[in-house]
Amino acid sequence: MMDEAPSKAPPAPTVEASVEAQVKAPQPRMSDHCTNDAPLDISEVAAGEIAKLADVDVYVSKPEGVFSSAARLVLLLTGGTGITAKTNQIQADHFARKGYFVVMPDLMCPRRFGS
């Protein structure tokens, strides 16, 4: 038994082997909503309205029959384009057609706090 050579440790991984393993690893995939949702049709006309809510301008889009049934609420927050952007209004209207009552506040609205 003394004549046996000691077992060798496995070779250290090389940079090439590490890169090859990363390439073979499964890559993240986009979910269905990223690839299957149709883009907004900018030829659509916004159906909601801009109103005041506690001195803040808001875009409101209501589902049909909102007063005859229980409605769910979506608080739609926009980026820098705000409530006057047609694409934001159309997106709010899409939620309303699916039965949601949508309120989209103007986050850029100048207002005074504490007065």
Task: Walk me through this protein's architecture.
This protein starts with 14 loop residues before the first helix and ends in a 10-residue tail after the last strand. The model has no long low-confidence stretch (mean pLDDT about 75). A four-stranded mixed beta sheet has the order 1-2-4-3. It has a domain of about 70 residues. It is elongated, with a radius of gyration of 28 Å. The longest helix is centred in the C-terminal third of the chain and has 12 residues. It is built from three helices and four strands. It is of the alpha+beta class.
Estimate what percentage of residues fall within beta strands.
Answer: 15-25%
Query: What's the count of strands?
Result: 4
Number of H/I helices = 3
Q: Strand order, biggest sheet?
A: 1-2-4-3
Structure classification: alpha+beta
Radius of gyration: 28 Å
Q: What is the terminal-to-terminal distance?
A: 92 Å
- Which spans have pLDDT < 50 for at least 5 consecutive residues? none
**Whole-number mean pLDDT:** 77
Q: How are helices and strands ordered from N to C?
A: HHEEEHE
Protein name: (Perigord truffle) hypothetical protein
InterPro entries: AB_hydrolase_fold (IPR029058)
Organism: Tuber melanosporum (strain Mel28) (Perigord black truffle)
